Amino acid sequence: MASDSKEVEVDMAPLFRLYKDGTVYRQDPYSRLLPSPEPDAEGVASKDITLDAARGLWVRIFLPGSPTSLNLAHEKLPLVLIFHGGGFVFGNPAWSNFHMFCVSMAKRSHSIVVSASYRLAPEHRFPAAFEDGFSALKWLHSQSIHQSEGNHELTEPWLISADFSRCFIAGESAGGTLAYHVARMAFNTPYSVASWMPMCMEGLVLIHPGFMRGTRTQEELDSYQDVFMNWNTADACIQLTLPQGCSIDNSYFNPLPIVSSPDCPFTLPKTLILLADKDALHFYVLQCVEALKDACCQVDVVMEHGVGHVFFIAQPDSEQAQHMTQSIDHFINKDHKVLL
Asked: What is the pTM of this model?
């Protein structure tokens, strides 16, 4: 661990400390898994690809089966770009818990899952994470162009089976906030749906998104808190991620000012928002849902009961986690089910 003799500015021991000299100490709470080029015990293969070495950006691709067998079968699968959580301060696509969540998603929805890294705060404050998420989306767009033009030399072999007309953006916790911003940037000025052809973004999946505001109700303050979500940790992460002098009510964490503005046309792809009733964040997210609906966005909400923030990380086999993944599968495939 970094020396305790140095003066600490932000302390989230034992996992994180920011020292007043600007140095940062992090400790992973989960082990990091290597990719599995051949299908693992769940029948899902994975591979890492560097997108931007200078920024340290990379993705982990998950395929529900062998890359060779999928290519030979000419099977086209939906594509999901997903972002991990961690308060924009922690997290990595290789973390065992998130790796296994992506394995489950790829297997359950029979989709190609692309888990993207992004730079973390406080070394890289906002808007760095949003820029990195948007870069991952633009990389997928370039892949869709290579595929449509038959440019096999530039096409990533593990994406040959991707159906770029069925793309989804997803994220959990902070990654849900990031996914929301990437979709907002992609669908609104200066971009539009036409900007992304031949890729088509069919939907947005927000899992326990970290939408917050400067004031909190007593209901929020009194709600259940645990290691995955408590206001002390949330406030520390906010302090570390926002640009100097920026308020939490900036649109980075709080979507309402933009969504509710009559002077700012706003649109999103159809959206599925997954919540938990013991998550302190869900109260404000529901207010944001109503604002999105008022802005004519198509939004569906699925609430799990008796569980807290990102419960599926610690309880992947719970009834609520199974129902949640079933909801995601249905959202991705409901218009494309093949009857056997």
From this structure: 0.96
